[in-house]
Amino acid sequence: MLQYASHPLDRAFHALSDPSRRAMVERLCRAPASVSELAEPLPMTLSAVTQHLKVLEQAGLIKTSKAGRIRTCALDVEAMARIELWIAQRKQFWERQYDQLEAYLASTSPTEGTE
Predict the structure, then answer these.
(1) What CATH number corresponds to the domain at position 35?
(2) Does pLDDT of 45 surpass 90?
């Protein structure tokens, strides 16, 4: 059986499928933050936030470091760039498909005055 979760993009999209994790990523887009800072606006326990951060870290979306008792999280910009590139490639494909469809429809549409 194919293991989807083993591919980095699959792990990243899975991690981003949760609204709380997306909120954490949004916060980390502004600047690195401690676990407590990330937990503050969220309606969940610190333990739950830690579990969500573990998913984000395993997906390669964030990096953490510890200084004393404070764990700081930072966004992994390279991981986000890989996701952006993948989406951009899909967008280019679909834009070409729509352009081809538009050209086909234009070539097969009845001309004016031939009703």
Answers:
(1) 1.10.10.10
(2) yes
